[in-house]
User: Fold this.
Amino acid sequence: MALRGDCVMRLGVRVMLAAVVAAGLVGFCRGGVTSSFVRKAEKTVDMPIDSDVFAVPPGYNAPQQVDCLKLSPFLFSEFSVISSFFNIWVNCISKFPSLKVHITQGNHVGTSMIISWVTENEPGSSEVLYGTHKDKLDISAKGKYTRYTFFNYTSGYIHHCTLRRLQYDTKYYYAVGIDHTVRTFWFTTPPKVGLDVPYTFGLIGDLGQSYDSNITLTHYESNPQAQTVLYVGDLSYADNYPNHDNVRWDTWGRFVERSTAYQPWIWTAGNHEIDFVPEIGETEPFKPFRHRYHVPYKASGSTAPFWYSIKRGSAYIIVLASYSAYGKYTPQYRWLEEELPKVNRSETPWLIVLLHSPWYNSYNYHYMEGETMRVMFEPWFVQHKVDVVFAGHVHAYERSNRISNVAYNIVKGKCEPVADESAPVYITIGDGGNIEGLATNMTEPQPSYSSFREASFGHAIFDIKNRTHAYYAWHRNQDGYSKVADSMWFYNRCWKSSEENQC
Ligand SMILES: [Fe+2]
Assistant:
């Protein structure tokens, strides 16, 4: 049973009082619900480097989860790179490159896809073959590869290839590693951007690569309707290893490939992507992240890959950078100032923001770290009726009421957030399950802006039904199965009815 946050202690001492006194307590109970569910608080541990989820199969330069036997002998009949099925087979068993595949949206509206993968021992081809029939990949796109060094680590060959001019709402098969080893995957493009387009997003943050991370990802995968992951930052936690051992970036890529190769993950940069380590000579922030995770930032007029926007279905998604400058006159500030007025709620009624460091957080972890960004941008979010802001960073779960602190005035003593129907709902979902463990220590009493909070691992689903309704559910990882522990209906404030856009 859930208990009201700041009521718990008071109820303990006043339990004997009559109903009149109990009624009086209501006035003191300003916060929302603090879940009584208690998750083990011990620090989790990363899965060992020889875990099956990281495995590279035996054999020279071997990839994981090879799909060669599913290939048709006719697959490459139109291409000179491999002339026969026999050659494919021979190459598959003898020269497998190691691949870690992930995809993300490649343009602003969802008709491009960026395919990224890594080969370990030699560059191999950066070409992707794709098509709408698995036995006829009759379109090709040429990509490029990059590499980087980090202290004593040298990366594999990191390929990025953008597939353009895709049809909406279409399943595509694609193949990579076409000169040595062929592995095939598939993805489905989103429906054409539009007002009443249903679309389902998954929410994951701060995942890492622990046993708990694996449970979270498995639970997410068991959600059949989820179509795209909105990822709120902190990916591999490689920086928790000596010298930020970048081998752990590779293991993370292999770990999540089972999802990232089949549906786009929309990336947000967190503090664990900064990798700024001057003591070992690594002074280029975000070096591994920038090389490994390309995003379509130029398509939205951004000048850096840490803040950008995309449209997908009926949603307009803005990704912000908690660890890039956002003060007045900075590139991110100027971009967002011009970006928000561009959102047409008659085309994309749902406006979602992703960022890493939460603005409203009632845990005693990273408290107020998002405050300076809130001060800069919150008035715009209220003005433009942002529906929901998803953040990570705090390794727990929390959902706010619709509140704002835009009237903040220190001279006049206005320092409290107040209910504001134009404000977003703020959701902290940094509960992927990484090595650093849960944030269990909460501020007491639970503040009025906090609607629900629980220190557990999990993921969420944001299920857009149409222009007026979306259903949100947070799934706790509970004793081996996924359980909905918090949910709410979102009613679109621009479309209170389906007749008129009130924004
Ligand atoms: Fe973080």
Observations:
- Residues 1-29, 57-97 have pLDDT under 50 and may be disordered.
